[in-house]
Amino acid sequence: MTATFSGPRLSRLRVPARDELTPSARRLADTTEKAEGYVPNWIEAFALGGENTNRLNAYLFPLLEGAADSPGDLTGREREILATIVSVTNGCSYCHALHVDTLGKVLEDHWLAHRIGLHHAEVAELSDRERLLADLALTLTHTPGEISDDRIEALRAVGLSDEDIFEAVQVISIINATNRITLALGVLPDEQIFANR
Amino acid sequence: MTATFSGPRLSRLRVPARDELTPSARRLADTTEKAEGYVPNWIEAFALGGENTNRLNAYLFPLLEGAADSPGDLTGREREILATIVSVTNGCSYCHALHVDTLGKVLEDHWLAHRIGLHHAEVAELSDRERLLADLALTLTHTPGEISDDRIEALRAVGLSDEDIFEAVQVISIINATNRITLALGVLPDEQIFANR
Description:
2 domains; about 0% strand; Uncharacterised_peroxidase-rel (chains A, B); oxidoreductase (chains A, B)
């Protein structure tokens, strides 16, 4: 443990000072602080990756937020359901708190977001399509070798195009990556999220 | 299953024709074909993601190949050892074949590459630093919640900076993502790899 931290520790690794940040990382910190009222701990902790982290974010954000140039057409609700279920499944406390909170905002219902994260199979409010996507998230996280032609056919049968399915696969997979990065660093959950729920 | 494929199927999802590719995807296919003599199946299969895939590659390649603007300083051998061990561990046949082959080229020793992929703990040729990085790859793939302060301290003790450790964590994590994408699509291993080994 380094002596950098006072109070609960933000990350197992060194946390760069604000004036060390790349221009793009500083922009992200500033915009997020303006929008949310604070800089989430993951942004401070991940800044150690410099341009690599900027490239991660350039891939991650369009997948989570949707992008005009993306061939797939998942809803914002679907993207965040996937991110939430993967994060809870991987036992990433930081990601769990963050994605349940974001899903709560997307749904305008934090209680529903918690229920989806904790056990989506029991949530009657999900559509068939959402439930199949959520099932895909679990399988692809725990036992990725078990994805079969039948699973893909079932997703097509509820109206998803191959481009939509690929986008869901990418969302699930990159959250599996960000969960691992966050767990490796032991990023401290943002107290701002818990303070208001 | 669609009727797009004759012979062994390249992917579970639709494979875009060459003239559908984004300029950046076409450039990647062309450069790789020139360098390797063929277009690897993953490039054809992942092209369904359009600009999302281009953004994935923009994050992935600098992590695997090293980049001047990266704060970490892992060797090419270390990066590819990590990618190989994660791919074998996740049971991704395509990624297993591809990364063992690439590691074999980096080491100029395909036999050593196979031994590292299959059971690195028994490989005396690894340095302590490489062995600890390889152990990190296994833990962060299977049980990411078990990374501890002690594990990080042990990595520092063999000379890795916090930036190096973070880079290793990013390599391990993104390969966990690409393994899952590849398994979801069931990408057919490239026969060109197996033909020559």
